[in-house]
Amino acid sequence: QVQVVESGGGLVQAGGSLRLSCSASGRTFSTYVMGWFRQAPGKEREFVAAITWTGSHTGYADSVKGRFIISRDNAKNTVYLQMNSLKPGDTAVYYCAASGGVELTATSRTYNYWGQGTQVTVSS
To answer: How far is CA 111 from the centre of its chain?
Structure first.
């Protein structure tokens, strides 16, 4: 079992930045990939970014590529999502998730453990 907890959400003006944190605990050695997803009210959950614990391989959704940066600190079992040049369309609840898969994946069902989410609101 793995527990993940997100933090760092808040209200920011368009063009501003926020950094989200995701702390993992439990059987973290059984996870290989950490991902960020987001979901706006009434909309489907969508992939944002993912990173591997080993090698720091990363992947991004086209909508955030060049603006968001995912990183991790293995010693702290923590993953970060640095969000720059934020747009109102980025407004959503952001979820951190852990996967036992061996490769980067953008598919929600491949992630086994999920956090409760943190709200990000970008004003125009």
So the answer is: 12
Is 28 in a helix, a strand, or coil? helix
In this structure, what token pair is assigned to residue 44?
């489907």
Per-residue model confidence as pLDDT tens digits over 87-107: 999 999 999 999 988 788 899
| Pairing state between β 18-26 and 58-60 | unpaired
Backbone angles phi, psi at 102, to 5 degrees: -90, -10
- In whole angstroms, how large is the CA radius of gyration of the chain? 13
Q: Cα 16 to chain center, whole Å?
A: 18
Residue 66: which residues within 8 A CB-CB, separation 6 or more? none
Pick from 89, 95, 99: nearest CA to 14: 89
Intervals of the chain under pLDDT 70: none
Q: Are 17 and 78 in contact (CB under 8 A)?
A: no
